[in-house]
Amino acid sequence: MKKTFCLLLVSALAGLAHAEEVMRVYNWTNYIEPEVLAAFQRESGVRVEYETFNTAAELDAALAGPAKYDLVVPSHFQLAQLIDDKRLQVLDLARLPNHASLDPALLAMLAGFDSANRYVVPYLWGSVGLVSNPALAEPVYGGALPNSWGLLFDPQQRARLAGCGVGMLDAPEETLSLWLNYRGRNLSMGGSRQIDQAGRQLLAMQGQVRNLDNDGYIADLASGKLCVAMAWVGHALTAAERNPALRFRIPDEGALVFIDSLAIPTNAARPDLAYRFIDYLLQPDNARRNALASRFYSPLAADTPEMARLAREQPMLVPDQAERKRLYFLERLTPEQKARVDGVWQQVKAARTAL
Questions:
Q1: How far, in Å, CA of 343 to CA of 239, rounded?
Q2: At CA 17, angle to CA 13 and CA 18, rounded to 5?
Q3: Which of 41, 53, 300, 342 is most buried, most CB within 10 Å of its CB?
Q4: Do residues 132 and 151 touch, judged by C-beta distance below 8 A?
Q5: Strand residue runs (E) in 31-119
Q6: CB proximity list for 271: less than 8 A, separation 6 or greater
Q7: What mean pLDDT do residues 146-167 have?
Q8: Which band of pLDDT confidence, cut at 50, 70 and 90, is reported for residue 322?
Q9: pLDDT at site 332
Q10: In a 3-state reduction of DSSP, which class is residue 254?
Q11: CA 255 and chain centroid, separation
Q12: What is the pTM of this model?
C-alpha cells in the first residue's frame, strides 16, 4: 500500500512538472520593468526563462543558431533580413486586443520596412544622441559645448575633450551612419570605398576614445569618467538619474531613431504563450512602466491617458516636435554593405584590443 502511494505521488508530481508552462524570452539588457515580468508570471502561471543580449549581432546569431525562443526583440534595421530569411512568424493581431493602444505613426514606420508591421509590434523606441557633462567638459573645451556631433567627430574638438573621457557605442551601423551623416553623406548610398574611408577615420580616433561599449559606459557617465559620449537615450537618462549634471541632446546635424519590436520566431515552441505576453506588455499601464524603467520611449499613442501621465512623470521620455524633426532612421544596407561595415568594425575593435 505504501509503495503504491509513493508511486502515485511520484506520478502526480511528474504530471505537474510536465504541465508547467514555460516560455523563453530573449530581450535587450535592462529593457523591462522587473515587476511587470514578475506580475505576468504570477497572474498567468507561466514561467518565463528570460535571457538578455547587448548587441544586435548577438540576437542575429541566436536566431541563426539551434536555440529556440518564443519571443525576441529585434531592432527595426534587422527586420528586413529576418523576414527575408523567414525567421519571424506573421502575427495574428486579433489575438492582441491591446494593439489598439499603439501609436499609429510607429506602426506606419514599421510598415515601411518590408511590411514589418505584419510580423512585429513596437515595444520601445528611442534615439542615439549625444550626452555630455558640461561641468567636466566645458573647462577643457574652453567654453559652452555646441549641440553638434563635432564634439566626437571633429579631430580638434575631440582632442580637447579626450582628457576628460570620450565614449562611443559598440554599434557599427549606427556609428558609421552618424559619422557619414555628420559629413552630409548617407551610409546606404555609399560604396565599399566610402565605408572603408570612414572605417579608417574611426580607427584613427580610437586612441582618444576611452569607451567603446554598450553597457559599461552608463556607469562611467554617472561616475564622471566620461564627459562626452554617443549614447542611447535610455542609457543616458539612466546615467543622469545618478548624475544630474548630465545632459542628453539631439545634435543639430540629426540623430538616429530606432524601434525595437516584439516578434515570435518561426521555430518558437510556445507561440500561444508569446501572444499572451505580448498583449500583457502592450497593456497601456505596463507600456508606461516599461518606458519608465528602461528610460526609452513608449509605443503608446499620444492621446492615451498613460502617455499624458508619462509626460508628467518623465518629460524627457516624450520628445517634442522639434527634436522629432531632427531624427532619421538607420538606413537599410545591402548584404555587401553590411559585410563591409562588419569587417571595418572588426578592425576597429581589434585596434582597441591592441591599445
A1: 31
A2: 115
A3: 300
A4: yes
A5: 46-53, 71-72
A6: 70, 89, 264
A7: 96
A8: confident
A9: 79
A10: coil
A11: 15
A12: 0.75
Distances from the Cα of 31 to the Cα of 12, 227, 336, angstroms:
38, 25, 31
For residues 318 and 312, give the distance between their C-alpha atoms in angstroms, rounded to a whole number. 9
Judged on CB neighbours under 10 Å (0-12, 13-18, 19+), 31 is middle
Helix (H, G, I), strand (E, B) or coil at 215: coil
Please state the length of the chain.
355
Whether 240 and 47 have beta carbons less than 8 Å apart is answered as no
Grid look-up 547587448 returns 54
* Inter-helix orientation angle 172-182/192-204, to 10°: 100
CA distance between the termini of the chain: 73
Q: What is the pLDDT of residue 316?
A: 79
Give per-residue pLDDT as tens, 226-249.
999 999 998 999 899 999 999 999
Question: Which grid cell is 129?
Answer: 544622441
Cell of 205: 580616433
Hey, how many other C-beta atoms are within 10 angstroms of the C-beta on 311? 14
